[in-house]
Write the structure tokens for this entry.
Amino acid sequence: MSMPNPSFAAPAEEPPRPVCLEPSFSLRSWSDEDSFANQLTARRAALALSDQGAAEMAALAELYAFHELTREALSVLSSPLLEQPTAALRERLERVRDVARLLEREPISPTSPCWRRRRTAPVLTCRSGVPW
């Protein structure tokens, strides 16, 4: 039976990142590894087939905003919705609209979802001592 060598300590696990350092939302889901043209074709087709569905509208606007095509994102979001979006979907639509406006250097509302704290995270203080 082999014994562990005490001169070699087990590698320390990386400590979990404090919640206050995690972004409140990520842009990673706004685009994937497929080419822009393929994603654009798929998302436009999904929007057309859904008859202006809010989720498909948000996905297309997110793709445009991710690629800094802010006017296109805002144009998509200005189309009328034929369905009443859920609260989470409404927040998603508002967030992509406000991200596009910020990229256009336009002001956004103080009540924007971009300013909200993560709901699941407790109020913590980071290194600077400022609450997030």
About this structure: The longest helix spans residues 87-103. The chain is about 40% helix and 0% strand. Residues 120-132 have pLDDT under 50 and may be disordered.
